[in-house]
């Protein structure tokens, strides 16, 4: 009875440790410290990506989860070895997807106003408030990727807003807006390249044709990952060869049939091989049709480029006028005095 009670207490303590935030990571033993991770990301980011994401750009700073100093937007998983000497323990490394970090306040220290009209009239600014709890999965041409962002909070009304919202993106410069790769709504997320293909008005092309094209690209990328993973697993047994895995996936097109056909491959051999994960299903035609009317910054790109070029031209003219009015001349324009030539030489024109 006492042993059962002690086991229940220890299990309760471990579950409480795993479910709470990793702010107090240094207080617990090392065998209980898996990795640093924001609390909300554990439920929205796939489990096979959490370890490499934590090791890539997250660190513990003063008891809190923070980003590493060499910040960048795109983070890619570590590449699997080209010639592995031992079979992989899991297929997570071969099927991991990239992650896009969108932290405009943390990266560029942008001055952002509160979206509420009462605070924006007073000039109340937003400040960083940690990681946003949800990681969004974005549809791409040959797969999916994930987008993570930060929380921004008003110092006056304490309103919190995500950094990928329209209220925040509209306050950034055009060059920064173009770096955000996706169009996000409340429930939908699609890459701008897919939206551009969706908006192209070609004769005889519809949303179903685009969905068929995306399905072919997704299946081709998924099968190449499966072939790479099963080729690495073939090192576990001499009976399993690369030609076997190639013949299996040459006749396999869908994820359901592939998982059933690889059961014999995973069961053969001395080393237990985990089957590849199923392919993430594609959205419906109605899902893709909702992005036709969504506005983005591509429509305003020519006007933004013209305004930027005019601004740079005016700045260049002002700087040239200041240099010509006072100060030493540059010697390249007629208004500036020419440099004195050495003895016996004529000045160059």
TrEMBL record:
Span of domain DUF6729: 41-240
Region (Disordered): 323-349
Domain of life, source organism: Eukaryota
Name listed for the protein in its UniProt record: DUF6729 domain-containing protein
Originating species: Alosa alosa (allis shad)
Phylogenetic placement of the source organism: Eukaryota, Metazoa, Chordata, Craniata, Vertebrata
